[in-house]
Amino acid sequence: MNNIYIQLIWAYIKIGIFGFGGGYAMLSLVEKSVVGPGWISETMFTDIVAISQMTPGPIGINSATYIGFVAPGTVDPAYSGVGWGLLGSVLATLAVVLPSFFLVLYSSHFIRRHHESGAIKAIFSGLRPVVVGLIASAAIMLMNKANFNPNGINWQLWSNVAICAAAFCLVFFPIPWKGKKIKLHPILVIILAGLTGYIIY
């Protein structure tokens, strides 16, 4: 087995163990683990995040499957075939899922027995703001040149900033409609953003 597969397994085991707070909270950890070694570029990473958001399933697992598929061929062209990519996908996906599965299996049993414990409540009181901070760091991490101005063209930068701001407002703020206030579904906002990008670019 090529070393890239061992590295994939080890990287995603660490992500599975220490990726608290769900997919968005673990994005900064994933970025350091896969972009840092040069398995994929920063631009490709942001594209993977976008694809993972648009496909069914948790973003952490989707990104692991995708990165596991493309990383072997990126590191060594000899491993760019579909078979090698599928092997990488399976290994990366299992590596990120299994630690979480066993941790949740054990911790749920432990928490159910000790849910009234002051220590358990104190631990969760500390974890909640950390999760919010990790998600915020992921959002800031994605506000980079690869996302907003990959071609170095000013009008594209401001167009992308406008799309970002509009998407935030559409999801966060209720829209008055026939005497009611509704919030657009994130999937609809993603579709609208894709159509807007197609028309502009």
Main β-sheet, spatial strand arrangement: 1-2
* Average pLDDT taken over every residue: 83
Shape: globular
State the share of residues found in helices, binned by percent.
Answer: over 70%
Distance separating the two termini = 42 Å
Radius of gyration: 20 Å
Number of helices: 9
Name the poorly predicted regions: none
Question: Briefly, what is this?
Answer:
It is built from 9 helices and 2 strands. It is an all-alpha fold and 201 residues long.
Secondary structure layout:
Blueprint: H1 3-18, H2 27-34, H3 42-54, H4 59-75, H5 82-113, H6 118-141, H7 145-148, H8 154-172, E1 175-177, E2 180-182, H9 186-200
Antiparallel strand pairs: 1-2
Notable traits:
201 residues; two-stranded antiparallel sheet; mainly alpha; 3% strand
Describe this structure in words.
With 201 residues, the protein is an all-alpha fold. The chain has helices at 3-18, 27-34, 42-54, 59-75, 82-113, 118-141, 145-148, 154-172, 186-200; strands at 175-177, 180-182. The chain is built from nine helices and two strands. Helix 8 (154-172) runs antiparallel to helix 9.
